[in-house]
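Quick one, tokens below:
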């Protein structure tokens, strides 16, 4: 259960609340922010001795998130839903867990808080508007590295539309690798 919860809660990291006020300090124009998007890709999580990987489908709306994690073979591992009632975590063969917010749920299930609110911004190559940050541009003027709230986000590759394609989010023994295979902006 702890392993499934770790995978699911890393998916929860991707379901953070985000508004859409643009905040950026880079020279290259960034794609327009949209409150509605869907990201499909791959995720890998390494925490100490544990290493987990799978596929992710994240549907983000201004007022909700629906994150589905599957194993590399396509079996459902976890589903996270954020809406006006809070956050729910569904893992096969386990009762659903609920909390008022994602931070509380990660703390209860894992014992530590994951960067829930920030990642909805970071996957778009932007700092969260909630606090100070440092950014380092690459040779093209895009964000190469972002530091915020104790997390280091390295952008390893961008897609042709200037959206991040490969990134690593790391802090104190936890590393989350994300590859965005496709974005659907609505």
């Amino acid at each position: 259960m702890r392993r499934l919860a770790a995978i699911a809660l890393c998916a929860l990291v991707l379901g953070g609340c985000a508004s859409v006020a643009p905040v950026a300090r880079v020279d290259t124009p960034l794609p327009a922010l949209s409150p509605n998007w869907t990201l499909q890709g791959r995720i890998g999580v390494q925490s100490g001795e544990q290493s987990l990987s799978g596929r992710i489908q994240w549907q983000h709306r201004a007022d909700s998130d629906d994150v589905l994690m599957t194993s590399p073979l396509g079996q459902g591992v976890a589903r996270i839903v954020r809406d006006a009632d809070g956050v729910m975590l569904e893992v096969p063969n386990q009762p659903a867990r609920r909390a008022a917010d994602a931070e509380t749920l990660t703390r209860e299930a894992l014992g530590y808080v994951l960067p829930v609110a920030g990642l909805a911004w970071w996957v778009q190559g932007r700092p969260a508007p909630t606090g100070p940050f440092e950014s380092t541009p690459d040779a093209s003027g895009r964000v190469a590295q972002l530091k915020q709230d104790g997390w280091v986000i390295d952008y390893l590759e961008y897609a042709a539309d200037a959206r991040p394609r490969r990134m690593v989010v790391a802090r104190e023994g936890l590393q989350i690798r994300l590859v965005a295979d496709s974005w659907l902006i609505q």
